[in-house]
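Q: Here's a chain of 320 amino acids. Please give me its 3D structure as tokens.
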Amino acid sequence: MHQFEIVSLEELVSDDHAYRRFMSVFDFSEIRPLIEVIERSACYKGYGAFCLFLCCLLQYLEDLSDRDLERFMRENNAAKWFSGFSLTCRTPDHTVFCKFRQRLGAKRLSEIFSILREQLKSRGVMNEVFTFVDASTLISKANLWEERDAAKQQKYDKLNNEVLPQVANDKQARIGSKGKNKFWYGFKKHVSVDMQSGLINKVAITPANVTDANGFKHVCPKQGAAYADKGYCVEPSTRHAKRRNVHLCAITKNNMKGKNKDKDRWLSGIRAPYERVFSKDNKRARYVGVAKNQFAAFMQAITFNMKRLLVIDSLPCPTA
């Protein structure tokens, strides 16, 4: 004799589950209309656009591929609850996630990121009084032997940033360098972090040959002071900071006149704790092209802030 018990998905997810806490971090109702508007011109096999957006959040929270996300959504009850699926509902396959990301796009996701950032500012969690600014590498998948052979067939003498777009799979990736010994092929990720909370304020992706100083305009705060390393002590970052009325606290290079070693040592100590934002970053470019990697950078920033907010909320309040 078989016994049957009727249960709901709500009962299967514990009250202290991390996904329940994540849902309390942001007010997603503000961004829902911006996401659902794409349903008017696209069909996702009956799945709502907002549900698919929440699936994508889980993808970056758990660092999953599209196929891994398909299995994760099918097997994990908490993931179904988080994304708004019922216990017996058929979940999307990996092709749906790919099509949804293409339709959502980096431009619309930037608007979503801005709305969520304004929520943090309205709560007093984030401000732009003191900002940490830095850039990190994103290495693209490449087969430089094949690209070198393709360059020879087209009678190019060198494999450089002028030739690579003609022979490489990723037409927007470039060769970048840091110092005289570190070189990579791909992109550069520019990030500004609010030093009060450790939350990501702005993020931008550029080809790897864009210098830190040139990328500063994409992540420059609107006010306050910006703490940066030696790559930002020159034009055009100084000019852009002046235009924004931002005080640029950049470490000066050793060959610059008026270098104050004690001051630079103090600035290095101020910046050190915020390097953790990059400590666990995946240095591999997830996609091909600037736009798709910018999409990934926004999603990573949103999920990083979600995780960071849980830490902030769990910290004891300072006593007066």
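Q: Can you summarize the key feature?
A: The first strand starts at residue 130 and ends at 139.
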